[in-house]
Amino acid sequence: MAVSVRIPTILRNYTNDESQVSAEGENLSAVIESLEASYPGIRARIVDEDGKLRRFVNVYVAEEDVRFADGLDTRTVDGTQISIIPAVAGGC
């Protein structure tokens, strides 16, 4: 299943400055593996060494935050739009 993945600016050095790329996979975990195969090193910026989504990375599948869905097991239907969005933190 082909999906489209929006890449945040901070990760575009892995995708040759492409802001949107195609990937394959029936769930988010498979899509991340597909991204890693095409753009080595990107997976480590999305998931930690335990294979879990990094705390400060938000991923949306069809505009649904996967943390409130099935996480890495969230299904990705053909043509789905996936957005990777780094969390912004700050304060005074």
What would your notes on this structure say?
It comes from Aeromicrobium duanguangcaii. This is MoaD/ThiS family protein. It holds the Pfam family ThiS. The structure is a single chain. A five-stranded mixed beta sheet has the order 2-1-5-3-4, covered by helices on one side. β3 and β4 form a beta hairpin. The termini are far apart. Helices cover 16% and strands 25% of the residues. The chain contains two helices and five strands, in the order ββααβββ. The mean pLDDT is 94. With 92 residues, it is of the alpha+beta class.
Please outline what is shown here.
This protein has 92 residues and is of the alpha+beta class. It has two helices and five strands; from the N terminus they run ββααβββ.
Topology:
Elements: E1 2-6, E2 20-24, H1 28-38, H2 43-46, E3 57-61, E4 64-65, E5 81-86
Parallel strand pairs: 1-5
Antiparallel strand pairs: 1-2, 3-4, 3-5
What is the ordering of alpha helices and beta strands?
EEHHEEE
Distance between the first and last residues' Cα: 44 Å
- By DSSP, the count of extended strands is 5
Q: How are the strands of the largest sheet arranged?
A: 2-1-5-3-4
Fraction of residues in H or I helices:
10-25%
Radius of gyration: 12 Å
Task: Based on Cα principal axes, name the global outline.
Answer: globular
- Derived from helix and strand composition plus strand pairing, the structural class reads alpha+beta
Average predicted local confidence, pLDDT: 94
Tell me what portion of residues adopts beta-strand conformation. Answer: 25-35%
Largest sheet: 5 strands, mixed
Q: Identify low-pLDDT runs.
A: none
Count of separate DSSP helical elements: 2
Protein name: MoaD/ThiS family protein
Pfam family, one: ThiS
Organism: Aeromicrobium duanguangcaii
